[in-house]
Known about the structure:
alpha/beta, 613 residues, seven-stranded mixed β-sheet, disordered N terminus
Amino acid sequence: MNKFYNSCGILLIFTVLFSCEKKTTEIFEPIKIAFIADAHFQDIHAHFDDANYQGVKHPETGEYVNIRTMEAQLHSTRIFNENYFAFLEALDDIVARGIKYVALPGDFSDDGQPVHVKGLRKILDQYSKKHGLLFFATTGNHDPVKPFTQDAGKTDFLGEGGKEQIIVSSNKNLKSINKTQLKPIITSEIKKWGYKDILNEMSSFGFYPQKEYVYWETPFSNYTYINYSFEKALEASALTKRVYAIDAFNKHPDASYLVEPTEGLWLLAIDANVYMPNKELSGVSNNPNDFSGASIGYNNVLLQKQHLISWVKKVAKEAQEKGKVLIAFSHYPMVEFNDDASEEMKAVFGENKMQLHRVPKSEVAETFADAGIKIHFGGHMHINDTGVYKSKKGNTLFNIQTPSLAAYAPGYKILSIHNKSEFEVETVVIKSAKNFNSLFPLYKQEYAYLNETGAPSIWDKEILLTKNYKEFTKFHLKELVRLRFLPSDWPENFADSLLTLSGKDLLLKNTIETTLLKKVLEENNVTLESFENWTGFDMINDFYKLRSADELAFEDIGTGRLKQYELVCHALKTSDNDMFKLWANIFEKSKNGQPANHFKINLEQNSIERILN
């Protein structure tokens, strides 16, 4: 009798365990997650209360705003002001699509300033309470800029009469001021916060455990999934318990965390910031100047954050055992992002140009692919790109670069998890943003002042005629190419040899026979005269469009021009100029990368396939 009941009990327990295991591994409700990288939020409506300064008065509305100059924007890889409106537009679009989970892979603020992080937190709180959105953020090299809070400031805010307005957090940040400049504003709200202050302000957005989470841990947690409780997580979440050694004396915070916001979904937020000592230190230092910025990313993670790699391996293994879908996101790319053209680019531009120092080594992709990461969303580079890496052990890593809302082409990504092996990724371009041009009257004042004072290299005021936000970012990129990229990244001789040539000149760079050329043109339905409608500058500008937006740039460039570029690249490859040959290879690779707009990933087949809209 007892044996019978014992047998039944064992059978019942086995059946329950088997049923639970089956439920864990087979049933999964489809989920959508939005990824907004590099928002670089700057609260244009913020006021500096401790300085009794409201900002610059709008000539038409009478409202006060705190914005940077157009001159500053057009020399920066990011827009400072209009992205405020694009960010709200993206959030409204996410709400309209019924998406509840939003990941922010770093650089969510301008430079981690109190005024901007507080402004961002208020907006995220509003969307959380009104629409039920759940936000999950991770750190970027702009938040925090250094591990510790530091005095800082900007000299290029827009002030009265179109002049620059200096705003700093301390008199120590002031350099010599001349009589024509506006009186500097001193406010603590423009400091650059460190880890402690940023994480405290953004605590509700993944950095610390919340009661509604199914599960939450850090690389330093010592509890397990089975014995998890909110109280244990809260105790383990103290920043003082989340540190690693950077040298023999100093420890820095690591804000990485794993969260299960809903049953079956694990979001792995990786803090890949590494602040290397600028010199050999003889003791503990809280001086931000003793440490570098964190813009290098994963190349330094391999050197300094081995604990992170061990933790990722553990998380990936447990996700597989427990039947969880694991999605990783961080600020930095894990896979080469130049469509395998990095070596050619080094040969043309130099190893320290074109942000090539930020390209992750193949060891990075190898390490994280073998650690178990299959899908990773990154940011940092302000580009739309997909990288696929297969390790020597046969593990495949899909690295999805999310475009910035503060650059061309402005957008965000949507990941649709259909089941545990099939995923869909869609890129949403923010073409229009309400009120994007509302600050233009202030820029007109700035332009008038620059013109009156005879400033050199004044920005092109045609940007103030743009009709929508995407067009604005496209113009921003063109000015960025003219004012910054060409002077700083391009070898002068090569740039000069390319800029003024017409498309026709470039096409005729090889020794192709006239009869054969005529046949090629006829087969492609183009005329030689049509190549005279553009110059080398246009090709360079379109290269930057491709580098920034990948497939999203095709529409802006046009199929006809793309065909002409194809023929020109083919011709340049047979020229006797090695630089032109390399340039042709770089350009061709930039327009023939992996699917980057709308595509699906199958983890069982390790495949990626473009979805034609």
